[in-house]
Amino acid sequence: MPDIRLLITADAAGGVWTYALEMARALSAYDVATTLAVLGNAPSESELSQARSISGLDIELTNLPLDWTAANASEVADAGDKIADLARRLNVDLVQLNAPALAASAAFPAPTIGVFHSCVATWWEPVHGNVALPPDLAWRAKLTRAGLSRVDVAVAPSQALARQAQRIYALPHMPIVIHNGRSKPGLARHGARDIPVLTAGRLWDEGKNVAALDRAAEHLPFKICAAGPLTGPNGASVEFDRLDWLGILDAAGLQDMMARTAVFVSPALYEPFGLAVLEAAQAGCALVLSDIPTFRELWDGAALFVAPGDLRALADGLTRLIEDAALRARFADAAEWRAGQYTMEKSAEKLVALMRSLLAEPQQRAS
């Protein structure tokens, strides 16, 4: 019998999927048996194959809506109730909600950890400034606030996001910070890095600020490649004129591209952690990052920072690293060393300690 039976929620629309799979793999070393409840659109066959390769991981495809794509609050409440029912049916010891809004009204039969990866309110502020949330986002933020107040403990992947969430939602306590991590893949280093500059992620997300990179590329003599989806499950989309789109790559394909890349760039306005940046640093890329709190927290001293809205600074920073091979090598070495501090093994160790502390406390649960 496993020491801990965990139900964890995720979707296949972004970094939470990667996080959930890697965490499940790392937790197996601590005798944690994980069931992954997948919300939103079903994963691709490649993604499902990746998940099924993880020993001891069970998959439940729920077809339930995500909190940020649901049509109304009742759909989110219903999804929360059904995840709670699943937890009862599986008789789990703990529930990890990677969307705390699911806890807004549901009664879970086991202690709940709300891992706060992102939300519409913390996204809206850096992307749109001091402007009130539109009604369609305001009710989603209200559910997130309610969920954060009802989980047994809230966790965030960076100090920057934890502080922002505490301020925006007026939380009595700041979420516990457990940095995300990645297990370093066994990359075959290419002799030459034939891709000068790469960006990757949810390109359709305004918070990624890919449109600024597209404009900055107008006068650059080298190619800038972009990998990732152009359309999101919420209907958002992006078009660009100057970036070389590589399509939607699987994990192995993206790792290969990063191993061939000289400089990885993220001009993001909003980034709760940035798994793509970590993956690029692991692959030996030099980093050019927007000067936002999360990136400063994680990469200060290991990246070249530029103001996120300064197109000239963005272009100059990229040019500087492309033209100066020695400087680029120093930044790449610094980024790769820093990446070694953010491993999934370290994240799992801290999460298991938190789980065991919750299980050691008597809990009163609704049946």
Strand-helix topology:
Layout: E1 4-11, H1 15-27, E2 32-39, H2 45-52, E3 57-61, H3 73-90, E4 94-97, E5 112-115, H4 120-128, H5 135-150, E6 153-156, H6 159-169, E7 176-177, E8 195-200, H7 210-216, E9 224-227, E10 244-247, H8 251-259, E11 261-266, H9 275-282, E12 286-290, H10 293-299, E13 304-306, H11 311-323, H12 325-339, H13 344-359
Parallel strand pairs: 1-2, 1-4, 2-3, 4-5, 5-6, 6-7, 8-9, 8-11, 9-10, 11-12, 12-13
Helix pairs in contact: 1-13, 7-11, 9-12
Protein model, in words:
The chain is α/β, with parallel strands linked by helices. It folds into 2 domains: about 5-180 and about 345-360, Rossmann fold (3-Layer(aba) Sandwich), CATH 3.40.50.2000; about 195-340, Glycogen Phosphorylase B (Rossmann fold, 3-Layer(aba) Sandwich). About 40% of the residues lie in helices and about 15% in strands. It contains 13 helices and 13 strands. It has helices at about 15-25, 45-50, 75-90, 120-130, 135-150, 160-170, 210-215, 250-260, 275-280, 295-300, 310-325, 325-340, 345-360; strands spanning about 5-10, 30-40, 55-60, 95, 110-115, 155, 175, 195-200, 225, 245, 260-265, 285-290, 305. Strand 8 (about 195-200), helix 7 (about 210-215) and strand 9 (about 225) form a beta-alpha-beta unit. Helix 7 (about 210-215) packs across helix 11 (about 310-325). The protein is globular. The relative contact order is 0.12.
